[in-house]
Amino acid sequence: MEKVEQPRPDHRAGWVERLAGMLAVAGGILICFAAVLVTVSVAGRRLFNKPIPGDYELVEISVGTAVFAFLAYTAAKSGHIAVDTFTLKLRSRLNAVVDGLWNLLLAGFLGFFSWGLLAGGLSARAYGETLIQIAWPIWPVYVTCSLLAALACLITLAVAFRKLGGGR
C-alpha cells in the first residue's frame, strides 16, 4: 500500500485567516454597536423627545469603519464577487492564476485607498477638523480606516501570492 502524502498546512495562510477573522469580529461588534445606538436613539426620540446627540455621525463612523474591517476577511476567504463567464472552461490552475492577478489588482486599489485615507487623516488633523454635531476630531477615523485598508491590502497580497504560487 502506497503512503499518500498529506498536504502540509500553510501556517502563513492560517495566520492570515485568523487576523482577518479578528478584524471581521471587530467589524461585527461595530455593526452591533450601531444597531443598538440607533435603537436607543429612536426610542429616546420617540419616548422622551431626547435622541442621542450625534447619533447619525456615530452610526456613519461605525458602519464605515466596519466595512473596512470586513474587507480583509472577504479577501482571505476569496469571497469577493467574481464573474467567471469567460473562465468556466479553463483548467483550475489557470483559473487560480487569473484569480491571483485580480487579487493583485485589488491589493493595489486597497493600497491606494489606504494611502488616500492616511493623507486625508493627516490633513484633517492639521486643520483640526471635527464632527459636526459632537466636537470629536475626525482624523482618528481616517487613520483607523487607513490601517484597516492596509491590512486588507496585505492579506489580499498573501491570497494572491498563494493563488499564483499554486497554493504553496
Number of strands: 0
Order of helices and strands: HHHH
Cα distance spanning the termini: 27 Å
| Radius of gyration from CA coordinates | 21 Å
What percent of the residues sit in helical stretches (DSSP H or I)?
Answer: over 70%
Can you tell me the overall shape?
elongated
- How much beta, percentage-wise? under 5%
Instruction: Count helical runs.
Output: 4
Major β-sheet profile: none
Give the domain tally.
1
Protein name: TRAP transporter small permease protein
Domain Tripartite ATP-independent periplasmic transporters DctQ component: 35-164
Family: Belongs to the TRAP transporter small permease family.
InterPro entries: DctQ (IPR055348), TRAP_DctQ (IPR007387)
